[in-house]
Predict the structure.
Amino acid sequence: MFKLGLIDLCTSHCEAWLPILQEMEGVEVFAVTDTGGCRPPEFVKDYAERFGIPHVCADAEEVAEITDAGIVWSANWDLHLPHARPYLERGKPVFIDKPAVGNLRDLNELLLLQARHGSLVMAGSSVRYAYEVQDLLARREEIGEVVTVWAQGPGDFFNYGVHTIEMFQGFLAGGANFVRHVGQQGGTDVFLCQYKEGPAVFFQLGSPHHTWLMTVNSAAGVYTVLIDSSRIYRALIEKFVAALHSGEAPWPLAVQLECIKVALAAKIARRQGGDIYLADLPQAEAFDAGPFWAEYARMRQCGK
């Protein structure tokens, strides 16, 4: 039985995931803390009582000390690495919600800590593990060599846009070479992500309809999936619990985190044009969590 610790209750995930987690065999939600700054101080105690969680802790360090594995949820992605660190340094499994990090410094330190301590790490978007993506992946041999991919998804550029990137990377895995900004209309942007010796992926961020869609083209045919967003949390949680029991993450951590590099390259490409190679990303480029988190916290505290 794995005792799970929960860190930061900013997002709706903390309430949507709990009933699913509590249905899973072999895990127990054992401790929780909330240092994310989005909820009122009394929320964590009420949350623990509502879901029958035995321990409310002062911080991530205390949660990691008394549990076997953790989930980091903060809406402030700049807190993800420090809040996951107590698990990483103990060699304990941890899941880090999307976006896992917002800059190369945190990305590289996360890779270093995982390698040094051998921790099992899953990080990122539930859309990567959507049943529809899993089903498409299971047909990989039938599909054969992929020539082009179209992927689209809704929402803001990074916090939600990373879902779209992870959707196509859940099928293709790592290997992105460069990103080019193709065009924009209104609040949407279209990019080309060219894979090394692989397909051209065209992806749209800020799609006007709240739908994740992916179309894969090969000589064998055209394969389109429409993601059922009502099932993505369960798909991810099943993968995480299975990883806890097997001791092996579905993807190497470097592959999971490549989506952050793709997003950073897209940010630069939209700003200055040209082909932005993932290997040449400047260390200083980042998605600053501060403004996003401040607005997110304000909305939460207004009851929205």
About this structure: The chain has two domains: 2-125+232-250, 127-228+261-280. The first helix runs from residue 13 to 23. The chain has a mean pLDDT of 96. The chain has eleven helices and 13 strands.
